[in-house]
Amino acid sequence: MAKSVDEFNKKRLRSSNITVVISIALVLFLLGLMGLILINAQKYSDYIKEQLVVNAYFDENYEAKDSLKIAKLEEETFKKIQTLAPVKKATYISREMASQEAKKSMGIDADALFEENIFPSSIEVALKPEYVDPAKIDEAIKIIKSVPGIVDVKNDSTLMVEVYNNLTKILRWILGFSILFLILAVVLINNSIRLKIFSKRFIIKTMQLVGAKRRFILKPFIIEAVVLGAIGAVIGLLALFGVWYYFTNQIGSAFVQNNQQYFWLILLVLGVGILITVLSTIVATWRFLRTNVDDLYYS
After folding, report:
1. Domains and CATH numbers, the chain
2. Can you tell me the distance from the alpha carbon of 237 to that of 256, in angstroms, rounded to the nearest whole number?
């Protein structure tokens, strides 16, 4: 009879642990998924911002005899602009290239359209994402315009501001959902742990009544919480990166290439899983340690 009771208790304990691990894994999977989306959304946002360029123009009025001198000056200016703090990437566009681009945009292939290259040479500058901010774009333009050889800097400021504001709104929504999922993770994992500890409330109280110290009672529960939290986090991460690998293969893009960010995400999910599980275990166990024996039947 005693053997059958022990087997029943072991099965119930095993079932309880599996339920807790699955709950932790599912919650951390969703939390990790929001983390991946947030990381990649930030990178994609930076990529879009880098496509918003400003054009720095050279002086178009010079005599043919000064062409070599001007070419050297433009080369020095181009190298100087590449080293500026706001500049992510710079592309030199010669007068010939500008004329060809103009013909192409007009849909005209005739070389006789222009007797000479009437468009000035320029430098197409992609700014770093932080300088696309409407509050800093004027500063970036001023820095570029101060470079010797540049006579004018033009940009579509309205488009830049509109794109920047829209991307900022999207990132804020994603960040808000990430925080919401973090709160849900805390609540759901805490409820799973409380139910597990609730099933052991009489064992906890019995240990206390026979003289066991609170620290001694808490220790095995905390160790078990660390193990369950770690296992749940690992399962959740395996499922997360499995789904993400399949998704990126389907669309043919790996998105973020920076493995360091993935590493920190793994540490975050693992840390959150263990931390919430341990804290929930301590709080739930401490509650029953302070509860009277009679109240255990009504907890």
Report:
1. 1-47+163-290 (no CATH), 52-156 (3.30.70.3040)
2. 17
User: What is the spatial distance between Cα 60 and Cα 114, in angstroms, rounded to a whole number?
Assistant: 15
Residue 43: count of CB within 10 angstroms of its CB: 16
> Is the model's pLDDT at 232 over the cut of 80?
yes
162-200: b (≥16 Cβ within 10 Å) or e = ebbeebeeeeeebeeeeeebbeebbebbbebbeebbeeb
Report the alpha-carbon distance of residue 285 to residue 205 in Å, rounded: 10
Check residues 30 and 119 and name the one with the higher pLDDT: 30
Q: pTM to 2 decimals?
A: 0.61
For residue 35, which of 233, 189, 250 has the smallest C-alpha distance?
A: 233
Taking a C-beta distance cutoff of 8 angstroms, is the pair 88, 124 a contact?
Answer: no
What does the pLDDT read at residue 234? 92
Q: Give the whole-angstrom CA distance, residue 229 versus residue 28.
A: 10
